[in-house]
Amino acid sequence: MPQPEPLTIAVTGANSGIGLRAAQRLAADGHRILALCRDPHRGRTALERINARAAHPATLVVTDLADPGSIDAAAEEITGETGRLDVLINNAAVFDQTRRTPAFTPSGHELFWATNHLGPFQLTARLSPLLASAPRPRVINVASKGLLTMPRIAIRFDQLDDASWYSPTRAYYHAKLAQIMTAYALALRARGALDVACVRVPAVRLDADRVAALPWILRTLYAPKNRLAIPAERLGETYAALAVRTSTWQEHADPASAGRSALRGIYLDENLRPVDAPASAYDAAARERLWAVSQQAVGDPSWAW
């Protein structure tokens, strides 16, 4: 029986954690991996691990999702590498709980918002022509199970880069809500031409080097949680299974209905079962407003859909 053609898959944050494990698994299964990493040294180290069992050598693409210029350069490099992109996994995110005061990018955006939402938004837009060239393109965003503790969370449209409400936890979950809403908006805009998913990631065990880098008090406080958390390898399998699935989100949705049922199948748990998002994610007007402000923030890029 002939083997299926390898997919070309871009994974952001492929140097550690879930992104690294997903890249390793997909490369070992014969797919071509574009590993998008912010730090060149850590990226090269990850590439050695990915390529240890890769059927096709993975490619490192240095990409800082907080820097619009770096994103544009990465998109140009990827366009030069391949004529199509089958899957984009927007995995990279920053969640530095030691950052008690907000940091801002040269563009003036709060760092968590820039890295965890605006960066993936811009990257997806810039890579959309390559995705549109694939026969079964897919975009995978990543959110967090921690949003279950914030059922009333909503986008702070008038305070997106306002330091007054900042805390690492608030900023992180605010951007993760935006990732869900963007997945919903993109799925509706693509109208079946693109499969879109957003994974609700539970607490994940940190790699040893990341634990070692924490201040001692955080290492002590985090140790019990880390022991109970799901191994990154397990979530890497989730990403990998979703990247190559033959089904689409529409198989779970009811297009004749409105609200949650019409979007069911986009937001998934670690077992790829459809789950509900926070209530505000189903507000169509809020999703359109988020799309508009995100477009403006990243320079109004063109989309293939």
Automatic annotation (TrEMBL):
Keywords: Oxidoreductase. InterPro entries: NAD(P)-bd_dom_sf (IPR036291), SDR_fam (IPR002347). GO terms for molecular function: oxidoreductase activity. It holds the Pfam family adh_short. This is Dehydrogenase.
